[in-house]
User: Fold this.
Amino acid sequence: MALNLLKDEHSVWGLSKSDTDDVNIQTLMNYQSFSYDQCDLSQDKEIDMVLIEQKEKRQTLDVIILNAANMENDIIDYRLDYGKFKYIFDVNLFSSINIIEKILPEFIQKEKGILVGISSLSSYTPLCVDKIAYPTTKAGSREVSKTVNAVQTASWGKTTVNA
Assistant:
């Protein structure tokens, strides 16, 4: 998806825990309109710092693809591991909400911007018995995207938010 948006001459920014050795990221980095940063998505302060740095470095930003996906098991030996559960929520859902909170005002001011929230089939029906947080966060991501879309449509008449 990011590659197609770059080919359509959008400015795309990536943020994840993955390093730039990832083959997909390497391909995207061949495009001048793609920028990429790394941080611990479970830490709001790290996200905030990267967002400030990114805003200072870039001239424009058209597209953000929200695709955090920690799929660790949070059921271990038939017990919920609350620490893992919370961490998965921080990475998969709360990091996206933090980014939306910081970037959306800029999109509204420009009356231009695309937020793409990647969900999962498991957001409709859990696919694994050892994961509670993953399908729950993906359902949350889908609903956040739909709500942001409705709010933005009401406030300035047009928006592009996909789930």
The mean pLDDT is 85. The chain has one domain: 2-162. The chain is about 50% helix and 15% strand.
